Every structure is written in structure tokens, then in C-alpha cells.
Amino acid sequence: PFLRLLEAQLQDQRREHEEEVEALKSQVDAIKEEMEKQQQALLQTTLQLSPEVQVEFGIQQEITRLTNENLDLKEMLENLESNEKKLKKQLKIYMKKVKDFEASQTTIPVERSQHERKMQAAVQRKEKDFQGMLEYYKEDEPLLIRNLIT
Questions:
Q1: Cα–Cα distance between 150 and 117 in angstroms, integer?
Q2: Do residues 44 and 55 both lie within one domain?
């Protein structure tokens, strides 16, 4: 019963939302039509003006357009700058974590060196047995390469 009540409420809300969306769409369409009518009237008025006034009107419209574009670009720049600051903060945090991790890794070389000695002994023994042939696990490859270099 509780789920049915919730479903009924959800359906009612969905219907109300759809009706509201439709009403808003019709308002937008009406506003678009009104705007087109006003633009047509403005165009007719502009064509009736003298050439000097038409040029001045065109310049005013271009100035308005460029001002709006500059404001949009300024807002975009501010967003990018704030994003850059956030990313720099994150980078500092991650760099600190990496340094802390590296510091913690330097405190465990005793365990690693014992493992490396075992691997070295195994490598030396196998080299003697097979004269240059070496069998190893794929995950031990970086360790073997490091041992070979040292």
C-alpha cells in the first residue's frame, strides 16, 4: 500500500511537471513570435531612416553585441581561472601525498633488499645451470632489470 501511494504521488508529480513544461514551452513560443514581430517592425523602421542614421543604428547594435560577447568571455575567463586555482590546489595535495608515499617507501627497504637478495641468488644459480637462459615471472621483470643494472 505504501509503495502504491508513493507511485501515485510520483505519477501526479510527473503529470504536473509535464503540464508545467508544456505551459512554459507555449510561453517561450509566444515570446519568440513577439520578438520576431518586434524585429520585423524595427527592420521596417530602420529601412525608413536616412543612411546616416542606419549606419549609426548598425554601429550601436554591433557595440551592444560586442559588449555582450565581452561579458560572456570575461565570465568564461573567471570560471577558467577559478578552475585553475582548484586544480593547482589538488595538484599540491597529490604532490604531498606522493612525497609522503615515497618517504614511507624508503622506510621499508630492509624487506625489499631481502627479497632482492633471494632473487639475485636464484638468478645466479639459474645462469650457471642454463648458461644465459633465465626463467622468471612477468611481475618480477622490473626487479630483475634493476638487479642486472646494479
A1: 12
A2: no
The domain in which residue 21 lies consists of: 7-48
**Distant-in-sequence, close-in-space partners of 54: CB < 8 Å, separation ≥ 6:** 46, 47
Q: Is residue 1 part of a domain?
A: no
Q: Is the domain of 35 the same as that of 60?
A: no
Expressed in angstroms, the distance from the first to the final Cα of the chain is 74
123/146 Cα distance (integer angstroms): 12
- Contact (Cβ atoms closer than 8 angstroms) between residue 49 and residue 57: yes
pLDDT the model gives residue 3:
83
pLDDT means per 10 residues in the chain (150 residues)?
Answer: 86 93 95 94 79 84 94 93 92 87 69 54 47 72 84
Residue 141 lies in a domain: no
pLDDT at residue number 14: 92
pTM, whole model, 2 decimals?
A: 0.37
Helices (H), the chain: 2-48, 51-106, 109-130, 141-149
